[in-house]
Amino acid sequence: MRLNESTIVSASPKLIWDYIADPGNALHYMSGVTRWEVVSERRSGLGARYRMLIQVGSAEVGGLIEVVEFSPERDMAWSSVTGVDQRGRWRLRGVGGSRTRVEFRFAYGVAGAGITGYISELVAAPSLRRHLRRSLQLLKRQVEHERLRRDAAARQATPEATTA
Questions:
Q1: Does residue 31 contact residue 134 with C-beta atoms inside 8 Å?
Q2: β-strands 85-96, 49-56: how paired?
Q3: Closest CA to 4 of 112, 115, 101
Q4: Is residue 54 within 8 Å of 32, Cβ to Cβ?
Q5: What's the pLDDT tens digit per position in 54-81?
Q6: How far apart are the C-alpha atoms of 40 and 71, rounded to whole Å?
Q7: Given this model, what pLDDT does residue 163 score?
Q8: C-alpha angle 21/12/104, rounded to 5°?
Q9: How many CB atoms are closer than 10 A to CB 7?
Q10: Which domains does the chain have, with CATH numbers?
Q11: How many degrees, rounded to 5, is the angle at CA 90 between CA 24 and CA 119?
Q12: Residue 111 class from Cβ within 10 Å (0-12 exposed, 13-18 middle, 19+ buried)?
C-alpha cells in the first residue's frame, strides 16, 4: 500500500531539512511513532539505522530501518531491514518566497500473507494516512514556530535606527 501527503511550509528547505534530519526531533512531529531510536554508529545521514515503531490501531508495528537516500535539503528515504516491510520518503521542494512544499510518502506491505496480508494493509491504511497528515501538520507547526523565533531573535540582535 502506498500513501502520499503534502503541505506547504512557510520556511526554507534548509530550516525544514535541519529539523527532519535530526533524529532527536522525530518523536516531536512523527504522529503515531512511539520509538525512533538510533541503533547505528552513524546518527543521521546515508546508512544511519533506527529502531522505529508506529501505532496502528492497538498494535505497535515497525522494525529496523536504514536511510537509503540522503540528499540535503531535498530528499531523505528509508527502507526496512527487519520487521514490517516499509519505505518512507521526505521530499522538500522550494516554491519561492521562503516557502517549501513538503511531501511525505510511505509504502508498506505484509509480505507473503496472501489475502490476509492484503486485508491487513487495507485495514491499516486509514490510520496510517491520518498519521501522515498529522505528521505534516506537526512538522509545519514546529518549523514555522522555529522560523518565527529565529526571525524575532535576529530583529532583537539588529540595532534599530534611531531618528534625531
A1: yes
A2: unpaired
A3: 101
A4: yes
A5: 888 888 888 999 999 999 999 999 999 9
A6: 19
A7: 45
A8: 50
A9: 15
A10: 2-153 (3.30.530.20)
A11: 100
A12: exposed
